[in-house]
Every structure is written in structure tokens, then in C-alpha cells.
Amino acid sequence: MKIQDLRKEGIKKLKEYNIDDSSIKIDMLLQYLLNISKIDIIVNSEKVVSEEVKEKYFENLYKIVNGTPIQYIINKQEFMGHDFFVDENVLIPQPDTEILVEETIKVLKNKIKNLKENDIVRILDICTGSGAIAVSLASYIEEHYKNNKIEIYATDISENALSVARKNMVLNTQESNIKFILSDMFEKVPKIKYDIIVSNPPYIETNVIKTLTKEVQIEPHIALDGGTDGLKYYRIIAKKSYKFLKSEADLLLEIGYNQKENVTTIFEENKNYINIKCIKDFSGNDRVIKMNLK
Questions:
Q1: Is the pTM of this model over 0.85?
Q2: What CA–CA distances, in Å, run from 1 to 8, 67, 136, 267?
Q3: Which of 67, 75, 135, 181 has the most CB within a 10 Å radius?
Q4: How many domains does the chain contain in total?
Q5: In what order do the strands lie in the sheet with 150-156?
Q6: Do 149 and 127 sit in the same domain of this protein?
Q7: For the domain that residue 127 is a member of, what is the CATH number?
Q8: Do 62 and 83 fall into the same domain?
Q9: Three-state SS for 150?
Q10: 163 shares a domain with 98
Q11: Where is 93: in which H helix or E strand?
Q12: Residue closest to 137 by CA, chosen among 119, 150, 118
């Protein structure tokens, strides 16, 4: 079969199953299997592929039909301008989370601006997963700050997730200062004071997970499940994080589009946090809650 025939048949099959972005996913699969660029798919459309490639193509095509995210097949997702390795042990980084990283970078810039000679800025990333947040911050720091005055700590309850995060550190940074910690939330976090705590915790309601698309349901539930009301981990963060933050330090959290009021209330009732604000994502949905320690 020719490349163009594989592409045409693949797009048709995905559309039959009402799978979104069918042409994008097929092009990603062809690029991966043939090790070519997107433009090469068009330029070499008449090229006949080997039987081995054809077999792998249809094998992976049916994985997509059955709900496997294309990112898990090609082991790659773009985030903050970098390619991240992803597999079934981690959530696939989403564009909305870039808002959280960008807001954290704004906070970091202010910290650096006011940094005293012997000070160190310490950042803690809770529930790091693929390491998308921590590694993106580390890459930004390497590019803009040529010193060792910034440390990043990143935790996750899953050793398999941390293995993926370490791989992404190697892929996307040169000599990063990230310290990865196997920990259930704050359980084994070093008891030092941090300038910034950032987190994209599990925040989907337990009963809602089963209503999500097949693709999302294949992602690790431990990284999705925020308890009965989706707020379990925000309560833990509100209860624990102030003990790890410096005075006037910053706390930034990703939230679900409908969680602004509930999450804000959790932190207001705690009395340890001030200047609670919400930032919207690219679609105009509430996405990041940002605050300071009192």
C-alpha cells in the first residue's frame, strides 16, 4: 500500500468511530512509523510501504479505535515547546496546564528580581506526573538564569511516574537541579521552606471518570481521581502547604473549569492564605488559582 492509501483508510476508519482530530492522529502515527516529517507524508504520498510497516500501522490504528491515546502509541506529547515522553503511567500534559507554568514563571521572575546575594529560590511541584511542570520550569531557568540559586523539588506517589519524569528531565534539560521524591503528597517532602509551591493535582470527581472519553479513561486513574467531590487534594494542600512555605510565598494550583468557587472557599476558610486570584485558560475557563501565604 502507498502512504496516501494508508492515510485515507485510517482517517476513514477513525471517522467511522467518531474519533476527533482523525487526520491529525493519522498523520502523527505515520510520522512515527515512517520516521518522516508531516510534509514528507504529502511529498512521498506515492511511496509504497513495507508489509511490516503496514501491519504495525493497522495494529496501532485499532488501538486508537479502542481508545488508546495516540500520545501513548508514539510516546510523545508537545508541551511548552518541548517534546515530552509519555506512557500509560502518566497523564498526557495538556495545553491548559501551560497557563499554570506561565503563571509560575511570572512569580519566579519577581522572586529572582528581589533575590539577595546568598538566597536560594526553592520550588516544590506536588503530583509531578510526567514532570511537565517541573521540567518546563527547569528548562526556562537554564535558559534565563545561569546560576545555581534555584532548586526544584518534584514529588509523586508513583515510582513509575517519577521514572518518566526523570527521563523527561534528561530529554529537555542539560544539568537540571530537580530533586525527585517518591511521596504521597507532603508525606516525604523535605521539611524546608519553599518560595513557590505549584501543583496540578487529581481533581475529577470519582463518579465522573467513567463518563469521560475512552482515551481519558485509559490514563492512570490515580492521577485523575480527586475523590467524591473532586476536592480531596485541594483540602490536603490547604491543610499542609502553609507549613512548607516561606512568609509571603506563592501557591499556584490548576483547577477544573467549574471548581473556582469551591477551591477558593477551601483556602479562604483555612485563614493562612491571602490574595487569592483566579486565572483563565485559553478557552476562557477558570484554570489556575494563585495565592500567597499570609
A1: yes
A2: 11, 25, 41, 59
A3: 135
A4: 2
A5: 178-182, 150-156, 121-126, 194-199, 245-254, 286-293, 273-280
A6: yes
A7: 3.40.50.150
A8: no
A9: strand
A10: yes
A11: none
A12: 150
